[in-house]
């Protein structure tokens, strides 16, 4: 859903929660709710989330959301949730299992979860762990808004379908050119990997597009696109529950496995640059981490149920 719609829904919720709302306020809220189906959808999703938070003193969370700058509300929500981990075991479990962005999205995944969907045009959408996507299909284009995580798209092709297919992130627009591609939202940009055919990438602050071809990947920023480089052959292996790496640093491999399990997984600096080649199951990260430790002569150090570190054996 659009950020401004979510903003409005949060504002209405805070105003209505503040106390007995005057009749004029209730009437204005009803008019807003009936003005657009997106308003009603945003309200339903927010109320569903709020229902889970109320037993854990949700008003401070909602107040923090309202005070946040408009373009940072969702990020602030995640930060507030993380901040209250120390005060509510229920909220901690909530965030570990599924981030706020995924709970508010049209399609979302929890930690360690992967899902697939058939889109209205017949295309296929695959979501990796902790991902969030909003759909915006209209008469002009077929658009997906990726707000968190990673997706694989297989676009459908029919003679009757002329609308462009676009994946949107804060960094820009990625227009499919009859293709299969992976998009991952990172803190410092959007990583595009083209598995088949090509994608036209347009940074958010520019009007020109750059073509990323079959077997290439590139990082898209709001101000430009980094030079394309060869993509790993198994960049979409996560769809089948596998992580395939070749001569990768141990720290990088462990970080990728860590995305698929709750809590912290780290690597001691002394062994972070050990090289790894292999195939690991994303559905059993415990087994994968143990295999890494055994294969590299390391040990797994545990500090409670949510903290694990790979360290030298001695």
From TrEMBL:
Transmembrane stretches, start-end: 76-94
InterPro entries per the UniProt record, alphabetical: FecR (IPR006860), FecR_N (IPR032623), Ferrdict_sens_TM (IPR012373)
Segments forming domain FecR protein: 108-199
UniProt entry tagged with the keyword Cytoplasm: no
Sequence ranges assigned to domain FecR N-terminal in this UniProt record: 7-49
Keywords of this entry: Membrane, Transmembrane, Transmembrane helix
GO terms of molecular function: sigma factor antagonist activity
PANTHER family found in the cross-reference section: PERIPLASMIC SIGNAL SENSOR AND SIGMA FACTOR ACTIVATOR FECR-RELATED (PTHR30273), PROTEIN FECR (PTHR30273:SF2)
Protein name: Fe2+-dicitrate sensor, membrane component
Organism: Thauera chlorobenzoica
